Amino acid sequence: MKKKYPAIPLLLILTGLLAGATPVHDLYLFGAVNIAGRVAGSRDVAKNGVYGRQADGSFAHRGINYPAMLTGSFDPRDSQVFHVAALCGVMTTTDGGHTWRIGTRWDMTEPKSVMVDPNAPDTVYAALPDGLGVSTDRGHSWSRHENGLPERGKYTQVVTVDRTQAGRVFAGSETGIYLTEDAAHNWRRVFPAVDTVTDIRQSPHDPKHWLAVSQSAGALVSRDGGLTWTPLTGIPDQQALYNVAFDPTRAGRIAIASWSLGLLTSEDDGATWVFRNDGLPEKHHVWRAAVDPDNGRLYAAIDGGALYGSDDFGRTWRSLGMEDSRIQSLVFVPCAQR
After folding, report:
1. Which of 75, 91, 105, 109 is least buried, going by the fewest C-beta atoms within 10 A?
2. How far is residue 76's CA from residue 338's CA, in Å, rounded to a whole number?
3. Would you say residue 16 lies in a domain?
4. pLDDT score of 242
C-alpha cells in the first residue's frame, strides 16, 4: 500500500496569532517589496522573494534576493525542501532557502504555479505559459506532460492537486479546467472557457467541493470532485478574480480577492456574498486573500500597499506590515514538519 502524507495547505495566507497561542503552522510569503520605487535597470536594494513569519508576527527575508517568486510548495516530509515558481523556472531548495538550484530547462521558464503531490511527494507539477511540466524526482529534472491539452490555448495559470488521491490534478488555463487522474499522462477538459482560470481550490471540509475563479467569467463551483462545474451565483462576472480561499477553521466561510472589486466573502458556503472593503485602503486592489488555519484570521494583500488582517472575517481590518509590496502568494506549512 502506498504511504500517504498529510496534505499541505498551499496558498492560504498571512500572519496573525491569537494572543498567547502557539502557532501550529509556519507562514511564508512570496513576492516583492518596494515596488512603487522600482525602475528597470536600476540598482535594487529591496529584499524580495521569500519571507517567513517570525515569533513576534513580523516577516523576515529568507534566501536569495529574487524579485519574481510567485508561489511555493513544500515537501510534506521535510519543510526545508520546497519548490518555487520563479521567472527563471522552478527553483528548489533543500536547506530552507539558503541555497537554490534551477531544475527546469531553458524551455520551461516563467511558471505561474507549482505544487507537490502530498500523496506522492517526489512528484511536482508546474503550470507554464505554454503547458504543463512534471518532475518525478523531487524537482531535479522536468519533462512536459501535455497529452490531451490543446495544441493552441494551453497557457496555464494554476495547478492544484487533489489531496485525497495521488496523481489527481487540476490545471486552470486560458481554455478552461483540465483534469488528470494518472499523474499528468493524460488530460481531459472538464470545463470549457474562453477566460483564463486564475485559481482552483479544494474545500478543507469536503474534498468533493471545489471552487474556481477566472479573469472575466466569474466564479465556478463543483460538488462532485471537479467532474462538473457550474457558475457560482452572486459573484460579478465582468471583473478579474485572482484567488479563492476557504476558511479551514469554519465550514461555509469563503473569501475571493479581486483587483477592481476588492474582497468578497461568504459565510453560508457561497449562497450569498458581501463586500468587505471597509477599513482597507480606498484603492482596495486585493492581490491575494487567505485564511489562517490556526485561528481563522482573514488576510488581504493590497497590491503596492500592505498586508491586512481581520479577526472578524472582514468586518474590521488592521495593517500587519509589508508596506509597498506585491505579495504573490501565502503558504502555510505545519510546524511539525521542521
Report:
1. 105
2. 10
3. no
4. 95
Residue 267, phi then psi, degrees to nearest 5: -120, 15
Nearest to 314 by CA among 271, 259, 272, 256: 256
- The number of domains in the chain is 1
β-pairing verdict for 307-310 and 318-319: antiparallel
Render pLDDT for 77-122 as a digit per residue (tens, 0 to 9): 998 899 999 999 999 999 988 889 999 999 999 999 999 999 999 9
Any domain includes 240: yes
CATH code assigned at 219? 2.130.10.10
Tell me the C-alpha to C-alpha distance, in Å, between residue 283 and each of 185, 275, 305, 328. 44, 14, 9, 18
pLDDT exceeds 80 at position 148: yes
- For residue 181, give its domain range: 25-38+47-337
The pLDDT value recorded for residue 23 is 77
Residue-wise DSSP of 2-50: ----PPP--B-------TTPPPSEEEEEEEEE--TT--TTS------EE
Q: What are phi and psi of 253, to 5 degrees?
A: -95, 125
Within 87-194, strands assigned E span 89-93, 101-102, 113-116, 124-128, 131-135, 143-144, 156-161, 169-173, 176-180, 188-192
Q: What is the pTM of this model?
A: 0.89
Round to whole Å and give the CA distance between 322 and 266.
Answer: 26
**Alpha-carbon distance 40 to 48, whole Å?**
15
How many residues are listed for the chain in this entry? 338
pLDDT at 338: 44
Backbone angles phi, psi at 89, to 5 degrees: 140, -160
Q: Is residue 319 part of a domain?
A: yes
* Domain-located, residue 146: yes
